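agent> step 3/5: call structure_predict on target 'Bile acid:sodium symporter' (Streptomyces chattanoogensis).
agent> reason: downstream docking stage needs a structural representation; sequence fetched in step 2, passing through unchanged.
tool.input:
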Amino acid sequence: MPTEQPTEQTDHATRRSAAPHGDLPASDRAARRAVALFPLLVIAAGAVGLLWPVRFTGWAPGVPWLLGVVMFSMGLTLTPPDFTAVARRPWAVGLGLAAHYVIMPGLGWLIATALHLPPQLAAGVILVGCAPSGTASNVVTFLARGDVALSVSVATVSTVLAPLVTPPLTLLLAGQFLDVDAGVMVTDILRTVLLPVVAGLVVRVAAGRFVDRVLRVLPWVSALTIAVIVLVVVSGSAAAIKDAAALVLLAVVLHNGLGLALGYASGRLARLGAPASRAMAFEVGMQNSGLAASLATAHFSPAAALPAAVFSVWHNVSGAVVAAFMARSARRER
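tool.output (status=ok):
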């Protein structure tokens, strides 16, 4: 198998801002702060939803629109070089996509089955596994001294392919637990994910100078919006949380931890090199839990959205911890 080493594209991507996907110099500080404070924001939002659920249960129809805001922000951070990078490194990007859409869905099904999760929670865990890469994965890869160019490429393509991949995978793996309407799910993902991303990209190309001025604000827009999504999801499943909080947390910790480990291992086995393997860890182990929560709320129930809400908090905490460990190891290797 070919060995992938950091390239000029890696350096280019590392200098770009990341908010949640994209460039890393202009909004670097804002992105770091957003990633550091994001778990606290989400925990606070979840606590509010748990303590005063009645006040927010009527907000559920707004969740897809909120997700659209997050994905539009992602589109604003993308540039044409993000797509040309895919053509330059097809082997590494293809491996990242295969690992992401095989490891996490498979782990979701295995964990749901092994823990004998109730049908709603099982479907929620599997749906998290079938989602595309997480919106903070690029920033965490940068903090871990990983291959940011590869991270951006895998995250971008996994998001673009989500309408084609997420629904059939969910039908295949979660269909034994609940009825899954894959056709309607495709439409929802196109409307709430792909169209906002494309719209953001068009705005970036057409008004790049203006967008550059607001890049440092985008991490906070995404963080606050996802926090509101968690608030709504938690308020809608407050009763389920009290009954199954420990079980859901165990499932989420196993899912995320094994995903990070197997993602890193897949990069190492393919001889991609240490920086690319670090990127693989986060592109596999971190999921777009906002999308999973939105789809679970729309297609299953608030209880099915609970794993996505917990995942939103946990994968950012674990990602920051693992990134710090990897960055320290990378400094020692020099």
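agent> step 4/5: record observation. Residues 1-26 have pLDDT under 50 and may be disordered.
agent> proceeding.
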